[in-house]
Amino acid sequence: MTDAPERRTRAGHGDDSIYWDKSKNRYIGAVSLGYTPAGKRNRPKVSGKTKAEVRQKLRELKKELAKGAKAPANYTVAQAVNDWLSQGLKGREVTSVDTYKSLADHHIIPPLGKAKVRDLEADELDEWLEAEAELLATQSLKMVHSVLRRSINHAQRRGKAIRNVAELVEVPEGRAGRPSKSLSLKQGEAVLRAKEGSWIHTYVVLSLLVGVRPEEARPLTWAHVHLGGSGKGKPHVDVWRSVRRHGDTKTRKSRRSLAMPRQAALVMKAHKRREQVKCLAAEKEWTEEALVFPTETGDVRSALNVRRNFRTLLKEAGFENPTEWTPRELRTSFVSLLSDHGIPIEVIARLVGHNGSGTTERVYRKQLRPVISEGAEAMDDIFGDDDGAMGEEVPEAD
């Protein structure tokens, strides 16, 4: 039996107050500590789903107060955030740290940076989040809130904050994000004809016809590309690495081996010959550990480099606004084209390396269509390559 909401009552100095907040759908507990030197009421708060949970949190809060654990009077939100960015993210990917820093620099420090951590109020953060909701998509808004919450948690562990008021507030819905797009069949055919003979053409063919992630394609080596032939089985690619920390794929099921359609195998074979010729011309020894899509210096291409070259290819393919597209949408198109062709969501989920069809359905829900049949060589059917199969079929690997 759940607790019934109770009417809010006025608490005396040092008394506990527990009341139901309809807007947050939670119970709020507060301890009245009089007034701050600025004349504001000093009422540290906690929240919970039940009154029992709130009472326990209030007891813990009062223990902290009894120990005299007080945040430094002048410790600001900006200091807390910057301390977390510099001390609390050791071992994280550089790209993740850069993202957190950018969110903090643009959406936390300007509006809240000067505020004292110990004086922050839930109402103040509610107003801040409502204002940011007009600028940010929901996912970005959740990330901004997470940065503040984790920064104050970091301060608590170092005795610079008593409570984390960011845990009291709910994140509102933000602006609708830009929906992912997928190529139509006609656009897909145009993309597959553009810049033939270049590395970016090969990259697009592999991404669109096999469905690998951008972070999986960029570090791919020839040791993980199997072009088939007599007795070598069907052409396939081992998606076992990514540019993520430690080279791991996104999830365990992201580590998979995928058969290549005939067109992809032919393009990859021609690309390998070109790379071998370049290696010979440079008087270098060819190795299967070489990158499939290297820079001129043999390094892994950056996401920015791939994006620029991809948009150049789109321009040649006749797209009016190439800047509206990203390489990741080749993968979205892979899902969309397979779904249109009648491939079940469970099969698509395995191909794109999701832990289950629920993830596929949630992420690509606008691209998925009702399905009635299966097909293992759908891309060959979709793009109608009649050059004949290369090699023999091999068992599917997860």
Descriptive terms for the model:
elongated, 398 residues, DNA polymerase, domain 1, 3-stranded antiparallel beta sheet, hpI Integrase, Chain A, mainly alpha, 3 domains, disordered C terminus, single chain, 14 helices
Structure description:
The chain is built from 14 helices and six strands. The chain has 398 residues and is mostly helical. It has three domains: 16-66; 77-168, Tyrosine recombinase, N-terminal domain (DNA polymerase, domain 1, Orthogonal Bundle); 185-383, Intergrase catalytic core (hpI Integrase, Chain A, Orthogonal Bundle). The strands form two sheets. It has a three-stranded antiparallel sheet with strand order 1-2-3, with helices on one face. Strands 4-5-6 form a three-stranded antiparallel sheet, with no helix packed on it. The protein is elongated, with a radius of gyration of 28 Å. The model is unreliable at 6-14, 242-253, 365-376 and 388-398 (pLDDT under 50).
Would you spell out the secondary-structure blueprint of this structure?
Layout: E1 16-21, E2 26-31, E3 45-48, H1 51-66, H2 77-87, H3 94-112, H4 122-132, H5 138-157, H6 185-193, H7 199-210, H8 214-217, E4 225-226, E5 236-239, E6 256-259, H9 262-281, H10 303-316, H11 328-340, H12 345-352, H13 357-363, H14 378-383
Antiparallel strand pairs: 1-2, 2-3, 4-5, 5-6
Helix pairs in contact: 2-3, 2-5, 3-5, 6-7, 7-9, 7-11, 12-13
